[in-house]
Design a protein that fits this description.
heterodimer; A: alpha+beta; Alpha-Beta Plaits; Ubiquitin-like (UB roll); 4 domains; 22 strands; about 25% helix; B: Immunoglobulin-like
Chain lengths: ~425, ~90
């Protein structure tokens, strides 16, 4: 490699010598320290060999002494290339022009990228950047990144940080938007409603007016704690030693709407039904697998790797095909397909009645658990075996579960949903606990 | 030639005794074959014959004949020759 590079830099020529006097010529040249390489027969009684440009002159002496003529067949290397280039001034000028133009064009900004903006429009940022002197086509040296950062940060609202990076002909404006705390709707009136049917076990009101009490049966969607809080009853506000006539004729306060909050726990019932055959049949993977790799051209399939016939009796195939991307309307009908065959084995499992019942009830329970919310507590479990008249090899199981869980859910208050319970300025039936 | 033989014998024994390599002491060629594709001959005395089917290289007191197909001389240095091609045989001729 190094040798070839040196030969190229110094230049070398290919010369042709007649075969008759070759040996003498070679021996004399090599004893004089002339380096020759690539000696090969060129046909027609001639042999070609390569020699360095600097050795051509001493080789002439050798040729004269051995009376062996040589002709230069080919010239290669940098010195010849330079010589040729000298004659082609326009090409050289063009190349130089190209480099200069490339250099000049690369000193302008051609792309402005804006990243990190989620809610702020790109145009808005670009407009601000333009005011600070950054736009497409501006020379790179005239862009003051610190000034652009400052201007964009000041002009565009809702930004917490701006970074401007010059990256070749591309300027990247990175933004970080201010993260505002989410609107929780704290101030809007909301009710607590039931998400499912149940029997109220306990109710703890943090804010709002309770509409149900312990022991009530509620249905899904029913308002449990209302947003509408009626004005307090004058009698209830009375304290033992106080005179009722402190502010005698106060106009009745209007109904206050608050964001109701509270914990409502209720007993909820779940039911599930499962069947379990005493003889279970199915297939199970053995873990053995085999991969077939093939190429599909049109309708033909060429198998590269893997068996032609699948050696398993039962198997599951998993096919994964790769196509060349379709371009316009042309799709190349060549597809690489990898098929994985997993060996499977059928099995038959027999259960006793008790086993089948246990399995079925476990499955039913697992099903119920997945339907229950996270904080629920199971109070009671009841497993019923459904008996049929004629004997059969199947066990039917019905599972009933009673659970204690929270059923309240906040929902925006709607004026006429379920009524506020305040018809004529009086409270609802339930007391505040 | 008796004197020369005696001298050579003494030299060989001397180099054997001191475990010196023969190519230095006895002026023997060192030949390296790379598969049947290349042969390097060090310590040569020139080329006697060259054509694509046969190359003869002179060494100290013998001639090495390399036969094969499409033989080319990859390079020639004052003390090393490299022959390339499909080599079929390497023979010593005295």
């Amino acid at each position: 490699m190094l040798f070839k590079l040196l030969a190229y830099l110094g230049g070398f020529v290919t010369i042709a010598v007649s075969e008759d006097c070759l040996e003498k010529f070679l021996n004399m040249a090599s004893t004089r320290g002339i380096y020759l390489w690539g000696i090969a027969n060129a046909g027609r009684n001639r042999v070609e060999l390569k020699v360095r440009l600097s050795s051509v002159q001493p080789l002439r002496h050798v040729a004269r002494m051995t009376r062996c003529r040589f002709q230069i067949v080919e010239r290669a290397g940098l010195p010849f290339f330079v010589g040729r280039m000298k004659r082609r001034k326009a090409l050289l000028g063009g190349a130089l022009f190209f480099v200069v133009v490339l250099y000049i064009l690369s000193s302008f900004v051609w792309f402005v990228d804006v990243t990190g903006n989620r809610s702020i429009a790109r145009e808005q940022v670009c407009k601000a950047a333009r005011q600070a002197g950054l736009y497409r086509g501006v020379p790179k040296w005239s862009v003051d990144t610190a000034k652009v950062e400052e201007t964009v940060l000041r002009q565009v609202p809702g930004l917490s940080w701006v970074g401007v990076y010059v990256d070749g002909t591309r300027v990247r404006i990175k933004l970080v938007e201010k993260v505002l705390p989410p609107d929780t709707g704290q101030e809007k009136p909301a009710d607590v409603v039931a998400v499912k049917d149940g029997l109220i076990k306990e109710i703890l009101v943090l804010n709002g007016q309770p509409r149900v009490s312990e022991g009530d049966t509620v249905t899904a969607g029913q308002v449990l704690i209302s947003a509408a809080v009626p004005p307090p009853d004058p009698e209830e506000n009375l304290e033992p030693g106080e005179e009722p006539s402190e502010e005698p004729e106060q106009t009745p306060e209007p109904v206050k709407y608050v964001h109701a909050r509270g914990i409502v726990r209720a007993r909820v019932w779940y039911e599930d039904y499962k069947e379990m055959p005493l003889v279970e049949r199915g297939v199970r993977s053995t873990g053995r697998e085999i991969t077939k790799l093939c190429m599909k051209i049109g309708g033909k399939e060429i198998i590269f790797m893997g068996p032609r016939q699948i050696p398993y009796e039962h198997f599951e195939a998993q096919t994964n095909g790769k196509r060349l991307p379709a371009w316009r309307n042309i799709s190349i009908p060549v597809e690489f397909i990898t098929v994985k065959y997993h060996e499977a084995k059928p099995y038959v499992h027999r259960y006793s009645k008790a086993q089948a019942r246990r399995l079925a009830s476990e499955r039913a329970l697992a099903d119920i658990r997945s339907r229950m919310p996270a904080g629920a507590r199971i109070l009671k479990k009841q497993v019923q075996v459904v008996e049929t008249n004629e004997p059969e090899d199947i066990v039917r199981v019905k599972v009933l579960v009673e659970a204690l869980e929270e059923i309240g859910k906040e929902r925006p208050h709607v004026a006429d949903r379920g009524g506020s319970g305040i018809v004529d300025g009086k409270r609802g039936s339930q007391g505040n606990n | 030639m008796a004197w020369k033989d005696l001298k050579n014998k003494f030299k060989r024994q001397f180099s054997d005794y001191l475990e010196l390599p023969g190519d230095i002491m006895l002026d023997l060629p060192k030949i390296v074959l790379v598969g049947n594709q290349q042969v390097f001959i060090e310590n040569h005395r020139g080329i006697q014959e060259y054509n694509p089917g046969l190359v003869r290289v002179v060494v100290s007191d013998k001639i090495i004949e390399v036969t094969g197909e499409n033989l080319t001389l990859r390079n020639i240095l004052p003390d090393e020759i490299c022959v390339e091609g499909q080599i079929t045989a390497l023979t010593f001729l005295s």
